[in-house]
Amino acid sequence: SIYRTSEYQHLLEELQGFIDKHSLGKTAPDLFIMGDLNLPNHTWNLLGTSDYDQGIKDRNSVVTEDFTEANFLTQVIEKPTRGSNILDIILTNRPDYFVRTHVDASVSVSDHKIVTGTLGYNLT
Fold this sequence. Notes:
Layout: E1 2-3, H1 8-23, E2 32-36, E3 42-44, E4 50-52, H2 59-70, E5 74-75, E6 88-92, E7 98-104, E8 114-119
Parallel strand pairs: 1-2
Antiparallel strand pairs: 2-6, 3-4, 5-6, 7-8
Helix pairs in contact: 1-2
């Protein structure tokens, strides 16, 4: 789980190093990256790639786009999680494993909604 802070680019670089280390000589591991990326100007489309809202390309959106494309990641949350923005996301290179994602109202003091994803795959 990740949260975008001022050290976000460094965090993605460390995460990329971890992915590279565990992908050496073989295909990438199944990746499920969840968290609050706090990118209000970043508009995710239904195919998992992104468009930039009204042409705004802040540095964090560019870094996120580069990271998702480099790792063949799809963003699977389709409904807003705070106001009209999708800030809390699930990125994965295995969207086919998800049978359902859901966004529910928060039951705590948070102004973000609760995000859940249900995985279902046959191991045989």
